[in-house]
From TrEMBL:
Residues 1-30 are annotated as: Disordered. Residues 1-15 have a biased composition (Low complexity). InterPro entries: FAD/NAD-bd_sf, Flavin_mOase-like, FMO-like. This is Flavin-containing monooxygenase. It comes from the Eukaryota. The lineage of its organism: Eukaryota, Viridiplantae, Streptophyta, Embryophyta, Tracheophyta. Belongs to the FMO family. It is an enzyme of class 1 (oxidoreductase). Its cofactor is FAD. Gene3D superfamilies: FAD/NAD(P)-binding domain. Residues 17-27 have a biased composition (Basic residues). SUPFAM superfamilies: FAD/NAD(P)-binding domain. The keyword DNA damage does not apply. Pfam families: FMO-like.
Length: 553
């Protein structure tokens, strides 16, 4: 980490030997050496050891030095740093430290303080000796800048106490990911895709008659057929059309098209004298604007998933007290988890490993796997009850009437499980958040009419945290009515995608990130890797009939 000292300083250790009889001169030389250290010059570790030995022996009359001195600087926040490690004699350690914190030293007035780390070490610390409070900053010396050194430096420069990153940290990470892999040059900014059209030269009847995907024996490409992607340029209000051989839709399902509940005539938001917004509009505000928007208002949040819980907590924080409690109106209870450590055991040990795959039935499984999943069903039930008992205890769900009727297994299988904000149920206990269950509601002039009640729930602002219409967003991007019908005509709420990517009847196209998993980051990466192999010709997809049967199972 360091270069050797200059030639002019090569005899520093010998000069210390010559001045042993004059501790004052030695101390002066030590101060000079410290000033050079402060100016970011580098010195041999051996030379610093000699400085220590000479000064301690002659000034403090201490014999039998037993230490290793490590010289390090410019490694934390640009500050010079000295770390004395493996000092066995604590009284000697104090004298060594005193050598570098004397008033004659350029470092200035400092005092000795115990390291926050459980190790046999001393470190130079910028602390005001007249302040009885805890130290403002400590200086850490790290020797080496390899993998371990960089990791050590990274964690010494940051203090992370949160279990989950903030939205700004996630944004910064995604941005750094794009920069690191040089992806930005491939992205067309200030554009919006308004439609994609399959330039096939075939009638819809011919496309429906295909027995294999793309009508080309399951191959991902066709020489004569392409997709036309129409793009609006938001800077100059122009439209451009790109022709591509394959389309990968990564448009997500939790944005752009809000899911707004339907109401009877004259009982919708138009009957309400207050404001009604969707959680999408609330999320578009910055933190300060959102706080000012809800401050001093009686707020009702509709929903009980992640967005609803977060918004309720932010409304409580903005109003700071019982004068304006936030009401959470919900239809069904959910197994929202406080953390991923039921009874101290990581949830991944129960549901995110190879063994847990044997607990559930899978499409295309053979007789033995089917039998094994059936035989292990009691264990599957036991895992679910184990997690449920932890959530009920931590959140006191029975006290608030919030115990779901369905099992935790059903919740986690939906992949829509979410975490409860810290101290959410404390706010419920204090009366800052009011939980109210209702299967339906409507609007009136004063606020909300809850099903089965005659007295309206007075409110100034209603925030609909009711999710998004991801299916409509996906459907509307297709120009072809036939392809729109394929999306909208799914027999269930789950879009039938082979391997959660390929629609059996929409050729040369894949959808990534639409199907949920416990961790979308990992599942999206694995799906893209699978798709990359398909596009490289490593394999072909099965027939349309086989893919449809697979998605139904």
């Amino acid at each position: 980490m360091a270069s050797s000292s200059s030639d002019s300083d090569g005899d520093s250790s010998s000069s210390f030997r010559r001045n042993r009889s004059n501790p004052r001169k030695v101390k002066s030389q030590v101060s000079a050496l410290s000033r050079k250290l402060k100016s970011q010059e580098v010195y041999k570790v051996k030379e610093m050891v000699m400085v220590m030995v000479v000064f301690i022996q002659e000034d403090y009359k201490v014999k039998g030095i037993d230490m290793v001195v490590v010289l390090a600087f410019r490694l934390t926040l640009g500050n010079s740093t000295l770390v004395f490690s493996q000092v066995r004699d604590k009284s000697l350690a104090s004298k060594v430290h005193a050598l570098f914190v004397s008033k004659e030293n350029v470092v200035g007035d400092q005092c000795m303080s115990k390291s926050r780390y459980d190790c046999n070490a001393l470190s130079m610390s910028k602390v005001n000796c007249n302040d009885d409070q805890s130290m403002e900053k400590k200086q850490i010396g790290i020797v080496g800048a390899g993998i371990s050194g960089l990791i050590a430096c990274k964690y010494m420069l940051s203090k992370v106490t949160e279990d989950f990153p903030t939205q700004h940290q996630v944004f910064d990470y995604i941005q750094s990911y794009a920069q690191h892999f040089d992806l930005l040059k491939h992205i067309r900014f200030n554009t919006k895709v308004v439609g994609i059209e399959y330039d096939q030269g075939l009638s819809d009847e011919e496309v429906r008659s295909w027995s294999s995907w793309n009508g080309n024996a399951g191959q991902p490409f066709h020489d004569d057929r392409k997709w036309k992607v129409s793009v609006d340029n938001t800077l100059n209000n122009s439209t451009e059309v790109y022709k591509v051989d394959f389309v990968i839709l990564c448009i997500g399902r939790f944005s752009d098209v809000p899911n707004i509940p339907e109401f009877p005539p004259k009982k919708g938001p138009e009957a309400f004298h207050g404001k009604v917004i969707h959680s999408m509009d609330y999320a578009a505000m910055d933190y300060e604007s959102a706080a000012n928007f809800v401050k001093g208002k009686l707020v009702t949040v509709v929903g009980l998933q992640k967005s609803a819980l977060d918004i309720a907590m932010e409304c409580t924080a903005a109003n700071n007290g019982l004068r304006n409690p936030c009401t959470v109106l919900y239809k069904n209870e959910h197994w929202n988890v406080p953390d991923y450590l039921p009874w101290g055991l990581p949830l991944a040990f129960l549901y995110m490993n190879r063994f847990s795959e044997l607990l559930v039935h899978k499409p295309g499984e053979g007789f033995l796997l089917n039998l094994l999943a059936t035989m292990l069903s009691p264990l599957r039930w036991g895992f679910s009850k184990f997690v449920e008992s932890d959530i009920k205890k931590k959140h006191r769900l029975a006290k608030y009437g919030m115990v779901p009727k369905h099992s935790f297994l059903e919740e986690i299988s939906s992949c829509l499980i979410s975490t409860v904000p810290e101290k959410f149920y404390d706010s419920v206990e204090e009366g800052n958040i009011i939980l109210k269950k209702s299967q339906s509601f409507s609007f009136c002039e004063e606020g909300i009419l809850v099903d089965g009640e005659t007295t309206p729930l007075k409110t100034d602002l209603v925030i609909l945290a009711t999710g998004f219409r991801g299916d409509k967003k996906l459907k509307d991007i297709f120009v072809s009515q036939t392809f729109q019908d394929y999306i909208a005509g799914s027999p269930s709420e789950t879009l039938p995608l082979y391997r959660e990517m390929i629609h059996p009847r929409i050729p040369q196209l894949a959808v990534i990130g639409f199907s949920e998993s416990i961790s979308n980051v990992f599942s999206s990466e694995m799906r893209v890797r699978w798709l990359g192999e398909l596009l490289d010709g490593a394999f072909k997809v099965p027939s349309i009939k086989e893919m449809e049967n697979d998605t139904v199972e």
